[in-house]
Amino acid sequence: MSVPGLKLPALHLLMILACSAAAHAQSTTQDFPTPVLTNEISGTIKPRTIGDSRLTTHYYTFNGDQGDVFINLVTRNLTGDFDVFTLNGLRPVTKIAVYADYGENETGRVVYLRKQEKLILRVQGRTPNDEEAVYRIKFAGSFVAIRPEDVQAAPEMPRVAAETKRDEKVAETERSPVPTADPAKEKEAEEKTEEAKTPPERADEKKIEGEVKKAGEAETKEAVPEKKAEVVITDPLAAKPDDPAARPEEKKPEKPETEKELKEPEAAPPATARRRTRRTTRTPPVRTPPEPKPDPLASINLMIQLKDGNALEFKMSEVRRFSVDRGILVVLLRSGKISRFPITEVSKVTIE
Fold first, then answer.
1. Residue 126 and residue 58: Cα distance in Å, rounded?
2. Backbone conformation region of residue 51, classed left if phi is above 0, alpha if psi is from -120 to 50, else beta
3. In the chain, N or C terminus with fewer CB closer than 10 Å?
4. In the chain, which residue ranges form alpha helices assigned H by DSSP?
5. Could you read off the pLDDT of 157-190 as tens digits, one per residue?
6. Is the dihedral of CA 279, 280, 283, 289 positive or negative?
7. What is the β-pairing status of strands 104-113 and 328-333?
8. Largest Cα span, the chain
9. Is the Cβ–Cβ distance between 111 and 84 less than 8 Å?
10. Is a pLDDT exceeding 80 seen at residue 84?
11. How far is CA 303 from CA 178, 225, 335, 348, in A?
12. Can you say whether the dihedral through the CA atoms of 12, 14, 15, 20 is positive or negative?
């Protein structure tokens, strides 16, 4: 088959590029990124099950020459980030953040490179609903695609399809009701399966062992008589007090063997017992209250002579305090009574 206007080496190169693009799927590991063989790549991110908050990550690699690298990005139903790093040192070059919307979102970046660099593109995100997320990236400017002969064979990675089927099976089992089993029926089924598994000879031996065991238990029950409770009735008044046989035997005092034992005095009671006896028998003495001592102030009086001829007399035993405060003579008695006299009206104060 020949294509007009296309030479045979070019046709072979196109077929090699198509086979390489088909062979290298979207890589999920940073060590073996997917090589970018053309100036346009696209990918899809499948939705995860409910409750799975993980992000899906794809890695691509391409080259950049000195100058500006134009990156055009179109996304649909995708929320995530597009990051570009250098292969040596993983130095960040640019970052594009996208959010899911009703339609397609288009954005772009221009990256200036001072020298030739090998770059890594990381696509990381997820779909916010049950529909797939789609992205398409176009490169231009000083972008350099990876040559097919420089592509290294990547190891086979686990497929996402198997995980999706497993998740679907888990979801189906969660939706399907769990039947409730009868324990009696389960026990009968287990006994039937055990009988079916055991050979007939083993089953006969088990039956014979069971019968022998039951016969031995019956013989042991018959051989061991049951113990009956015996009731014994005793009359404490049956023996008369006058009967000498019923009287307890009186022990005769033993004679001392040596004279030393006769001379030993009896042991004195302990001191604690004697003290307790004295305390109980002792009567408390009658204490007479002491006679009150005469008050020496009873015979001393406070005499206040006024200028108008009147005189006042107070016993010192009843006076608590007397003083002059701001021209007033104050006499405070123990009963709480207070007497005040202007000092201008007092002619003499004496204590007799």
1. 11
2. left
3. N
4. 8-23, 160-175, 183-197, 200-223, 259-263, 271-281
5. 666 554 555 555 555 555 555 455 566 777 777 7
6. positive
7. unpaired
8. 164
9. yes
10. yes
11. 116, 118, 19, 8
12. positive
Global pTM reads 0.41
CB 4 within 8 A of CB 15: no
Tokens in use for 181? 């089993």
Q: Which amino acid is at 243?
A: D
- Rounded to whole angstroms, the Cα distance separating 32 from 151 reads 10
Q: Which structure tokens are listed for 257?
A: 């063997």
Residues 57, 40: Cα–Cα separation, whole Å: 18
CA distance 340 to 325: 10
189 φ, ψ to 5°?
-65, -40
Domains, the chain:
26-151 (2.60.120.380), 298-351 (2.30.30.100)
Specify the residue for token string 């995980």: 163
Number of H helices, E strands in the chain: 6, 14
